[in-house]
Prior knowledge:
It is a single chain. Helices cover about 80% and strands about 0% of the residues. The protein has helices spanning about 5-20, 25-40, 45-55, 60-75, 80-90, 95-110, 115-125, 125-130, 135-150, 160-165, 170-200, 210-220, 225-240, 245-260, 265-300, 305-315, 315-335, 340-355, 360-375, 380-390, 395-420, 420-430. It is mainly alpha-helical. The longest helix has about 35 residues, at about 265-300.
Amino acid sequence: MASFEIWLPLILALVLLALRIPVSMAFLSGAVFYFGFVATEMPLNMILSKMVSAGMNMNLMAIPFFITAGLLMNHTGITSRMMKFADLCVGHMWGGLAQVNVLLSTLMGGICGSSNADAAMQCKMLVPEMEKRGFDRAFSAAVTAASALISPIIPPGVMLILYASITENSVLDMFMAGYLPGIMICILEMLAVTYVSHRDGYKPTREKRASLKEILLSLVECFWAVLMIVFLIVGLRSGIVTATEGGAVLCVLCVFVGMVIYKELHMKDLVVVAKESFASVANIFGIIISATVFGLYLTYAQIPQQITKMILGMEVGKIGFLLIVNVILLIMGMFVDSSAVLMIAVPLLYPVATQLGIDPIHFGIVCILNLSIGALTPPFGAIMYQCCHLCDIQIPHFLYQAKELLIALMVSLLLVTFIPGISTLMPMLFN
């Protein structure tokens, strides 16, 4: 079989993606081309069986629950109470409300795990308020977009679950690995906000630092949110619940808190959440199923083995390989949905990482952080487009205001790349 024929489906899929064809259709087109015209000996029932089994992975079943939980947060009153708590903690700092924006994303990331849900929520809640207080709207949107990228890193990020499923690593290990990088990104973004606020005169929202009593009282008001985070960590660590079961319990808790405790969640809200959740889940699982079939082509054609041989032949070493991965994933993340890139790139690059002795957990965090940053960069960064659309901002103005935050994110990426312990310390401590 000619080597060119083997690579044609991959080229076809990439061309279709560049033409903005839906990700699932691009992957399926590449796979259909290969099994329809090149490897015609592959039985059709095997391909169909692979498509069905792709959506039946128990780890992946956690994704719909965590997406739904994130959407429910916006309607239960939990988010507004977490925002008040964040304001008490950092509202006295330069750029007070922008600092609240970053901290709130970090806190909410530990519950919902969805950057899209986080960005949409804060575009509606915080951006108008920031504009009222004198913040440039584009800067407000940039802070919202950059802080939303913390959500995929902080457990229970959907990307963490996807990576664990693809590579057959522990979901719990990936969850634990995300905490330190997520906190580090939060700190670096807050430093960037402080610098910009000093330069542009964005004042604190509070005249003085909140007292410990005020913070503790606010924390009590956030009891249910804190309980959810503790339940998730303790439940997964102790083996009481799986990731899927934990996500289901979170959804039930959200509904209970919203309807019974805070009384801010109504039946009409559940209908809205159900529609939004169904759309998000359908999109993700469409990508997963099509990428699984595309992965069958990659495996059958031995593409990963060829890429592994090629890279190992370059003798670039661990650091050199990780830098190559950074460049590849950053570029791919600019053009293609992060989940799609993860599904297609990890099976290609993971064998090389294992051959080079790179810790699989560390490699996963590097991949996810790369793709998160890609969602903020042109030409097709998903989070960038979402925030610009919701806030009615031109992309050039957005990018100008986001430059310091992008620098903070790139510094985070380099630190995670060169210091594996940032990713691996927590999993080692909890094993």
